[in-house]
């Protein structure tokens, strides 16, 4: 019975983030923009970051996605704002391991995003859950000078930045 109550709590938190996502919208001044899509189900995210020094000061996202994708993006924003790029990258790797069913001892660092661990039982939904986190990883790689052309751009860049999650 207690497990059922816990499952219901997890579902309610996920539904709340999906229905009322945190950080949905655009930033007035962003340092980086990334667009990523999941061709399997059609989810698309446009992620904007405002980075000062090594710290993520703000984050916003728009796009179309299922409830898991939207909730995950909302939870990711809560987890990484105020973190350094290195810390955000570590959280992204931790999240990826969690939703793939790996044992993660420090999932509490993920905040509400740790509640998406149950996605591991539904392999088709893993890409939905990780879409926003993969976009974040692309931004972090670019900020460290490791991205390839077309992955990410600065706000005034007119190059096409759309990329598939499968790429």
Automatic annotation (TrEMBL):
One of its GO terms (biological process) is iron-sulfur cluster assembly. One of its GO terms (molecular function) is iron ion binding. It comes from the Bacteria. Signal peptide: none annotated. Residues 10-128 form the NIF system FeS cluster assembly NifU N-terminal domain. Residues 158-167 have a biased composition (Polar residues). CDD domains: IscU_like. Residues 145-167 are annotated as: Disordered. NCBIfam families: SUF_scaf_2. Belongs to the NifU family. This is NifU family SUF system FeS assembly protein. The lineage of its organism: Bacteria, Bacillati, Bacillota, Bacilli, Lactobacillales.
């Amino acid at each position: 019975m207690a497990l059922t109550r816990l499952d219901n709590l997890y579902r309610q938190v996920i539904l709340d983030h999906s229905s009322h996502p945190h950080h949905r919208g655009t930033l007035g001044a962003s340092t980086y923009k990334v667009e990523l899509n999941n061709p399997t189900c059609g989810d698309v995210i446009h992620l904007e970051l405002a980075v000062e020094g090594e710290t993520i000061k703000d984050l916003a996202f728009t796009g179309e996605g299922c409830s898991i994708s939207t909730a995950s993006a909302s939870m990711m924003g809560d987890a990484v704002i105020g973190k350094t790029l290195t810390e955000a990258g570590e959280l992204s790797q931790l999240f990826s391991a969690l939703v793939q069913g790996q044992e993660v001892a420090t999932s509490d660092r993920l905040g509400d995003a740790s509640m998406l661990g149950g996605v591991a039982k539904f392999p088709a939904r893993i890409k939905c859950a990780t879409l926003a986190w993969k976009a974040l990883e692309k931004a972090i790689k670019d900020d460290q000078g490791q991205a390839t052309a077309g992955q990410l751009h600065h706000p005034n860049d007119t190059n096409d930045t759309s990329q598939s999650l499968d790429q």
